[in-house]
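re: the backbone from monday

yeah here it is again, tokenized this time
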């Protein structure tokens, strides 16, 4: 097998564009042929459907009018009318309705009483009256009130239909000429060579543009579209098949309600395909033209494509060297520009990740080192000197505080990691809030007294029990209170306010009159490893994990946390607030 490796990007792109001039021609041609076929078939279908619906409606309305007329005539009280009056009435009906060939009035025993026929425009009273007692048109109408016969053919092979209806002690019969349907069918135009025709429920032709075919009593039962109608009796169906002459046609039938007839429209398929062939030729021609133009523009495009890619390659090289402040600017207005922007975003993310890494290293160096140094120094001091028990206890207390501080840092790291992975499960229990807060307040009061600061707890409204994880919420309060303790000067004030908001939320506020939170930190103070420097000492205040833990813990309880700090004037302080829902 021939294995050719193309290393040049320019060559690869040129090959791609060359293939793009050939493949679209075949592909577009196939698509256009498919779409054209479907569109034309759909157009022909809807055109034929509109025609057959119009014809079917007119036939149905005509038959429905005749049926209503027969029903109205049958309800007349002919027993109180003279024979001459009946003949006069029937004669008027025949003159007004030329499609009616004959009207017959029968008594309850099936004997014809009056028979009026229309011949050559004249109405004639027939004397050769017969008894129809055993005829279907009589006993069906008498037993079921109404009767419509199948399509019948006269001696001249002309189609007609009998409609009979039971009245007041009589049965009225009308013989309906179906030649009017011929005129309707002959008016239908479908394309240049298309036409419509009507068949009955056995496939016999009732109406056709060529009347001689109806007179010949043509049977279309073996025609594919008619066979479909006879076998399935659907409301409508469309198909392409060879007609009785072997010509390919597109045909659609629709049924006429109650009559079980079908109106069929058909059009030679060659006539259907002619616009599609012209469209295909035009499509192929324009595909060739546009493919050539596309190839020319593609060659020009390659040159403009390679320069930005070279810039991207150099940019990636600098990023791989750790130069995360590097940025690339490409104004191509396309996907390459989007790719360059994505690389810039990646570089910014890497820069922030590097800062985070540096912060983590700094945190480990400063915050973990300090308590460890306190522990080691205290232990060394114990080992090198012989102190009495009281002094040893004080040193051990210092060791414990340092270890607790170290443990708190580690616990914050672990809990934040578990909350980020949705693995921290709350151990909720019903807590009497005032009792719970009393212990926290007492411990914190001792700390504020040591640093010569003031602390007070205020309640507003009824304070109910809460269902919370008491250990988690206690750590949240301790974090916020110690944060205020670190940011207030000697004689500073700290408040813990607890408010009942509309009996559905408890709001906690830790407020102080310390240095406050700078405006630029308000939106990111709850992020990991973010610390605010203390103005009076320019020292780090902690790992930057405490407030992150607070935010995630409160949100895990279904509450929210925020900070308010005016920053001006100096000493305006800050207020950290969070809410917890009251679990009813």
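seq for it, each position gets an aa:
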């Amino acid at each position: 097998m021939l294995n050719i490796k193309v290393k040049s990007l320019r060559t690869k792109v040129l090959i791609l564009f060359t293939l793009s001039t050939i493949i679209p021609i075949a592909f577009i041609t196939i698509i256009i042929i498919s779409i054209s076929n479907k569109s034309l078939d759909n157009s022909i279908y809807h055109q034929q459907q509109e025609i057959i619906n119009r014809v079917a409606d007119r036939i149905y309305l005509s038959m429905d009018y005749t049926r209503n007329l027969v029903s109205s005539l049958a309800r007349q009280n002919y027993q109180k009318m003279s024979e001459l009056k009946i003949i006069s009435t029937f004669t008027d009906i025949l003159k007004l309705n030329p499609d009616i060939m004959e009207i017959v009035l029968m008594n309850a025993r099936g004997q014809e009483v009056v028979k009026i026929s229309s011949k050559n425009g004249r109405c004639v009273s027939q004397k050769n009256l017969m008894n129809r007692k055993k005829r279907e048109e009589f006993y069906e109408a008498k037993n079921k009130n109404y009767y419509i016969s199948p399509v019948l053919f006269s001696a001249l092979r002309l189609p007609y239909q009998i409609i009979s209806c039971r009245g007041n002690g009589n049965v009225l019969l009308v013989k309906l000429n179906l030649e009017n349907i011929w005129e309707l069918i002959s008016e239908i135009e479908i394309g240049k060579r298309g036409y419509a025709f009507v068949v009955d429920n056995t496939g016999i032709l009732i109406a056709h543009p060529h009347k001689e075919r109806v007179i010949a009593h043509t049977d279309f039962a073996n025609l594919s579209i008619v066979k479909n109608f006879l076998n399935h009796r659907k409301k409508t169906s469309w198909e392409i098949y060879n007609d009785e002459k072997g010509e390919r046609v597109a045909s659609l039938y629709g049924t006429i309600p109650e009559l079980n007839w079908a109106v069929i429209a058909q059009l030679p398929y060659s006539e259907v395909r002619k616009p599609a062939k012209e469209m295909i030729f035009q499509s192929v021609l324009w595909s060739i033209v546009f493919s050539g133009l596309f190839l020319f523009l593609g060659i020009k495009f390659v040159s403009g494509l390679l320069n930005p890619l070279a810039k991207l390659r150099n940019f990636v090289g600098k990023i791989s060297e750790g130069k995360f402040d590097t940025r690339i600017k490409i104004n191509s207005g396309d996907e390459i520009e989007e790719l360059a922007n994505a690389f810039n975003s990646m570089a910014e993310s890497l820069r922030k990740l590097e800062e985070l890494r540096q912060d983590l290293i700094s945190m480990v160096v400063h915050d973990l080192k300090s308590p460890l140094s306190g522990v080691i120094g205290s232990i060394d001091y114990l080992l090198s000197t012989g102190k009495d028990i009281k002094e040893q206890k004080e040193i051990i207390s210092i060791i414990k505080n340092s270890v607790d501080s170290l443990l708190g840092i580690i616990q914050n790291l672990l809990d934040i990691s578990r909350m980020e992975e949705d693995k921290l499960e709350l151990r909720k229990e019903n807590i009497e809030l005032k009792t719970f807060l009393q212990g926290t307040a007492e411990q914190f009061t001792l700390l504020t007294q040591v640093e010569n600061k003031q602390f007070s707890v205020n309640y507003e409204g009824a304070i109910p029990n809460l269902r919370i994880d008491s250990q988690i919420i206690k750590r949240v309060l301790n974090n916020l209170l110690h944060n205020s303790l670190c940011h207030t000067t000697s004689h500073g004030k700290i408040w813990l306010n607890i408010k009942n908001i509309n009996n559905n939320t408890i709001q906690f506020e830790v407020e102080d009159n310390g240095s406050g939170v700078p405006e630029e930190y308000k939106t990111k103070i709850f992020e990991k490893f973010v610390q605010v420097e203390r103005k009076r000492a320019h020292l780090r205040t902690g790992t930057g994990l405490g407030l992150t833990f607070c935010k995630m813990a409160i949100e895990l309880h279904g509450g929210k946390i925020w900070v308010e700090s005016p920053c001006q004037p100096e000493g305006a302080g800050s207020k950290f607030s969070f809410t917890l829902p009251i679990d009813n």
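The CA atoms of residues 21 and 292 lie 6 Å apart. Residues 349-422 form a domain with the Helix Hairpins fold (CATH 1.10.287.130).
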